[in-house]
Design brief:
With 198 residues, this protein is mainly alpha-helical. Helices cover 54% and strands 3% of the residues. The chain contains eleven helices and three strands. The protein has a three-stranded parallel sheet with strand order 2-1-3. The protein is globular.
């Protein structure tokens, strides 16, 4: 049996399973969106494999990425997280997670949910990146820049345009599977995605 064609980064585990089952699937639960934003920020300067292997640790330390619980972290909870070997023990990134949970709470008060806020940038419909295997994927896009700027205005941290693009891709807001990848067609057909500059 011939193996499926995948995006070039998904050649081994755990990236392969993550790519096949999660990456690019449109996500609407606030806790999952918060998780993806956190993990993409944590990944900066590290391999995605490292973050995937520590994901259970992140889920434990940050209480299933319940934004309300994380927003209530005090100095003791932050210190405990910094000393927990189950996650990347980078104080700045851990503090950022708490800061972002508090910023997310503000967005929820204004927009009803983080889901409503973030999906409004694309009119509620995933955007197709539509790159080919031979294309160089962009490090950022106009959409990612716009979202990054707005998140920063709302006091989110570790949300540079490159990190935000990775988040948009992971959350299925942008379908950046390569066109030859078997997941590109599956997700395009199931989500009603539209062409655009993701």
């Amino acid at each position: 049996m011939v193996d499926e064609i995948r995006c070039p980064w998904a050649t081994r585990e755990p990236e392969k399973t993550y790519h096949d089952t999660e990456w690019g699937v449109p996500e609407h639960a606030d806790s999952r969106l918060f998780e993806l934003l956190t993990l993409e920020g944590a990944q900066a300067g590290l391999s995605w494999e490292t973050i995937l292997r520590k994901r259970d640790g992140y889920r434990r330390v940050f209480h299933g990425f319940d934004p309300a619980v994380v927003a209530a972290f005090d100095d003791g909870a932050i210190e405990a997280a910094v000393n927990d070997p189950g996650i990347v023990r980078h104080r700045g990134k851990i503090v950022s997670t708490v800061t972002n949970a508090r910023a997310l709470a503000s967005v929820r008060r204004e927009c009803g949910s983080f889901d409503a806020y973030i999906w409004a940038f694309v009119g509620g419909t995933p955007v197709i990146g539509g790159h080919r295997m031979t294309d160089e994927l962009p490090g950022t896009t106009p959409l990612a820049v716009a979202v990054s700027r707005d998140l920063k205005k709302r006091a989110f941290t570790f949300v540079g345009a490159t990190t935000v693009l990775a988040f948009l891709q992971a959350a299925g807001i942008v379908n950046d599977h390569r066109r030859e990848c078997f997941r590109f067609a599956e997700l395009t057909e199931s989500s009603g995605a539209r062409a655009g500059l993701g």
